[in-house]
Amino acid sequence: MSEATTKGPLSPELLAKMDAYWRAANYLSVGQIYLKDNPLLERPLTLDDVKPRLLGHWGTTPGLNFLYVHWNRLIRERDLNMMYIIGPGHGGPGLVANTYLEGSYTEIYPHIEQNRDGIKRLFRQFSWPYGIPSHVAPETPGSIHEGGELGYSLLHAYGAAFDNPNLIVACVVGDGEAETGPLATSWHGNKFLNPATDGAVLPILHLNGYKIANPTILARIPHAELEELMRGYGYEPFTLEGDDPLVMHQQAAAVFDTMMDRIAEIQKDAREGGSTKRPAWPMLIMRTPKGWTGPKVVDGKPVEGTWRAHQVPLSEIFEKPEHLRQLDEWMRSYKPEELFDEKGKFREELADIAPKGRLRMGMNAHANGGLLLKPLNVPNFRDFAIEIEGRGQKDAESTRSLGQLLHAVMEANKEQKNFRVFGPDETASNRLGDVITGTGKAWMAETLPVDENLSETGRVMEVLSEHMCEGWLEGYLLTGRHGFFNCYEAFIHIIDSMVNQHAKWLKVTRQIPWRKPIASLNYLLSSLVWRQDHNGFSHQDPGFIDHLMNKKAELVRIYLPPDANTLLSVADHCLRSKNNINLIVAGKQPAPQWLPIDEAIAHCTIGLGEWKWASDENPEVVMACCGDVPTLETLAAVCLLKAKVPDLRIRVVNVVDLMALQPQSEHPHGLPDEEFDLLFPVGTPVVFAFHGYPWLIHRLTYRRHNHDNIHVRGYKEEGTTTTPFDMCVLNNIDRFQLALDAIMRVPRLAQTVDAAQQWYSEAIQRHKLYVAENGDDLPEIKDWRWPQELTR
Ligand SMILES: Cc1ncc(C[n+]2csc(CCOP(=O)(O)OP(=O)(O)O)c2C)c(N)n1
Ligand SMILES: [Mg+2]
């Protein structure tokens, strides 16, 4: 060893062991991509040893492995509680290799033994049918992050660090990943992280220079500019650059010691010195070659240090003998005989430098959040119920009651600090303001006297980025806590893709016995399509319901409570549930209140049911509704019908739990067919007013016996800035339309259809003229109340 390589904090012995450890991780990573046999290279490689399909990503992996070895040293020397999140999750083989070397993999999967057979199985299972995925995944010990879809690593890291003061979350951000919108905004997590009460996030920008086929932006701006960028985000940037492994180990050890010391100082200042300043947390820019230590040149073209190293650098093993030879040479360059004994066991003296027990990153309990999950204390939601005196006589903002419940939940969990509310600047606008009082909103940036409720210990997380809210909440849930996300209905689509990934994670974890259930991901969508009084078309889109509906039935719950008491009951249920994605859609505008709390609870428990107080025996038509505005319009339509055809027998059915409409075979909440048939008798027409796109109701009910008689009205993409009732008219979900629909569907009223159509046209014309002239809805519409004499 030259003097240059021995200079640094690592003793020559430790340096040699760390380098050998890193070589072992690299060896096992390459082996996973290529080999199905001959795992220790005890004979020259032949084509029979090589997998028929070469799948996986080499390029990012050596850098990730390098960091793992260094985290191991820091954990051992400083007794750290550390998690590792890798943004380029396609570096999966690296994390599998490292958790194998530290022993956690074998503990969780005993068939992957610490010997030749075990390594062979480890190699074979990777990217193999029914084996393990090529990315980090729920199957990977120590991971809370899939990383197949790039962009969310730093958000997950911050989410994990909130309220975990003793945790350090090391997070690798790919330089390509850093170009994504969600990642680009995530650097701002440091404006919300409190060094006294939260853990630390240690971002590593992995500047290997390339993506799949292109250079990365951040690798091609002057280094000083990149450092300025990071300083501008409020970090203290450190740099590590080079490609000589031994020199790099020493330099890395030195820089990580400095960074860890900085973190310790920052935390001490805040925890003992009482500093409330926003610190400049350290971050690292790590400039190393893509595919470091891999083949330098293949077929005459440079590979190491270029984008060509991204996936499988030698991809024509079966076509080109030279590739097989190069693979053999590459794998032997790691000197496997020095790393594994004759039985294939990782050599004791090398294994010994890894942390032990729960300190191993593959065994960190935070990465299996369900292990740490404490039940949420949910106070009695009946305390916030609205008194109902006469159906629909009193208006209330339903979400305001929910805000009171959420505030009480905050208070009840103040000690255990495991509940946060997330929202993109809309928590107050969504009438959930009560949750902000008391605890305040998290904020570590500057404040001015004009600000309200900003606090470094705030527990409501508000930032105008749906990506940040979603990513933080996911990280918070995945590490064993509880949360609630409120958002405008139209803009929740921004995180469609993120919820997809979370749904995949939950689906897979349900099949993995060692992954314990985590708290559900809860959404409240408010500021709904029907009531965009000053925003209009841009703010109108109920399609997130359809989006979630595609996910695995066992995961997804969708609720449309029609009033405050049903909302409270639904929210209570969601806050207590596990491993689900719960979507609640509820309006924030003053609206009539229908059900006393006991009735609300009973109604929500079944998920749908007849509102007997508004219904007749032996119905000739069923007026069904789902959502608060459709419920109002339906009841108003019943009232119109009663005036026009006093002896018409009508049943009102309200649906809170959309999933109950499906057959039981499709969803665990599905109503049994016999009960469905009692509610919607075969042959009886159903006029169904739905909050969202109408086709969804057909999709959910197409197997029901009475499906041919279900006629749905819903949002059909007619949006604008207009009056609330005119929105209904534009989409044909208004009370006049629903009443006309009923008349047109009831056979004995066939003779009256022409007259009813005439009546409908006149009513709509009157409405249109009035709205155009007065800029507001007709008083008889606006002030309409359910007539008490119609209550049975
Ligand atoms: C959101 C998203 N877009 C595109 C891809 C396809 N993709 C997979 S890897 C990759 C390049 C990643 O580059 P980088 O983050 O620099 O990772 P590394 O160089 O460490 O492999 C791309 C574009 C993806 N996985 N996710
Ligand atoms: Mg890259």
Note down, in words, how this protein is organized.
The protein is α/β, with parallel strands linked by helices and 792 residues long. The chain is built from 26 helices and 22 strands. The strands form 6 sheets. It has a 6-stranded parallel beta sheet with strand order 12-9-13-14-16-15, sandwiched between helices. A 5-stranded parallel beta sheet has the order 1-2-3-5-4, sandwiched between helices. It is elongated and about 95 Å long. Magnesium ion is lined by residues 174-176, 208, 210-211, 216.
Write the layout of secondary structure elements.
Layout: H1 3-6, H2 12-34, H3 61-78, E1 81-86, H4 92-101, H5 104-108, H6 116-125, H7 153-161, E2 167-174, H8 181-186, E3 200-206, H9 223-232, E4 236-241, H10 245-271, E5 282-287, E6 297-298, E7 301-302, H11 321-332, H12 336-339, H13 348-351, E8 395-397, H14 398-412, E9 419-423, E10 441-442, E11 454-455, E12 460-462, H15 466-478, E13 482-488, H16 496-509, E14 521-526, H17 544-549, E15 556-559, H18 564-576, E16 581-585, E17 590-592, H19 597-606, E18 608-610, E19 621-626, H20 628-644, E20 650-655, H21 673-679, E21 686-690, H22 695-701, E22 710-713, H23 724-730, H24 735-745, H25 753-774, H26 779-782
Parallel strand pairs: 1-2, 2-3, 3-5, 4-5, 9-12, 9-13, 10-11, 13-14, 14-16, 15-16, 19-20, 19-21, 21-22
Antiparallel strand pairs: 6-7, 8-17, 18-20
Helix pairs in contact: 2-3, 2-4, 2-6, 2-10, 3-4, 7-15, 14-18, 18-19, 20-24, 24-25
Bound molecules: thiamine diphosphate and magnesium ion (MG).
Magnesium ion binds next to loops.
